Amino acid sequence: MGLVFADIQLSNPSQHQLQALTVNALVDSGAVHLCIPEHVQIQLQLETVDQKEVTLADGSHCLVPYVGPIKIKFENRIGFAGALVMGDQVLLGAIPMEDMDLIVIPSERRLSVNPNSPNIATSIAKAINEQITKKK
User: How far is CA 63 from the centre of its chain?
Assistant: First the structure.
């Protein structure tokens, strides 16, 4: 399949005076989170709100800062996420991709908005029948 990269825009929604950063992110639907290097955290003035223990590919564990929220923009999609501060490049994982209704097109090695919903992101939200009945 090969690696997939996409230009995305990252910004700090609580610091409107800061300019957004356009970065070339590694797109990985097998990864879960948004990951950013420390220099992106510094440039966007993102405060650490927690720490998360992550398991690395070699099986080792480490604590990394968790920052956010971060506003993510790709084409006509916007999402908000927390990010793990680790590594040397931005990694866009499954959670922010699902939130923005994005798909990976492996044959073209590119990220795209969902062609079934090109104008607005869609999501699945289910409620139990009792909740639906109360609103009627």
Answer: 20
